[in-house]
Amino acid sequence: MLAQTWPAGFCKINTCVSPIPTPIKFKIHGLWPNNITGSQPRDCLGPGGAPIPPAINDLDNTILPRLNSNWPGLKQIDQQIRFNNIRFWEHEWKAHGTCSYPLFTFREYFETGLNLYAKHDLMAILAREGIKPGKLVSKVDIVNAIYKHIKIVMLNTSIVLLAK
């Protein structure tokens, strides 16, 4: 399940990095594996119950620019954005990515999230339906606009996007 967030809204209720990473668009919050029951496993362990460490060195210049732009750590964790992002990616791997192992390696987990994100451009989808930043729009109108283009499921108050 690919979770995306609108930085301006997210940063109204969280202490965020400043300035918010540009360009202003939906950002990836995470790629969260689901069980067949719909539950989301977290903090999975590898063979023999050992933790599966993040392989930060596998994130080279062929993927880092896309991660920095599309999957940044918005919450202020570290004074330097570069380290803020790395800590966020380590958190996402530990909490969610480890549950997709061995189907996805550390790098493949992030590549998969980036590829799904590129396939479903929420800004373009909403713009096609006349919904643009700064315009007051109901949640129902947003959900309906997205549903026309992507299969979605509502969980609590979150909109969950699934590939159609």
TrEMBL record:
The keyword rRNA processing does not apply. One of its GO terms (biological process) is RNA catabolic process. Pfam families: Ribonuclease_T2 (PF00445). PANTHER family: RIBONUCLEASE 3 (PTHR11240:SF75), RIBONUCLEASE T2 (PTHR11240). Gene3D superfamilies: Ribonuclease T2-like (3.90.730.10). GO terms for molecular function: hydrolase activity; ribonuclease T2 activity; RNA binding. This is Ribonuclease DdI-like. It comes from the Eukaryota. InterPro entries: RNase_T2-like (IPR001568), RNase_T2-like_sf (IPR036430), RNase_T2_His_AS_1 (IPR018188). Keywords: Endonuclease, Hydrolase, Lyase, Nuclease. It comes from Cicer arietinum. Belongs to the RNase T2 family. SUPFAM superfamilies: Ribonuclease Rh-like (SSF55895). One of its GO terms (cellular component) is extracellular region. The keyword Chaperone does not apply.
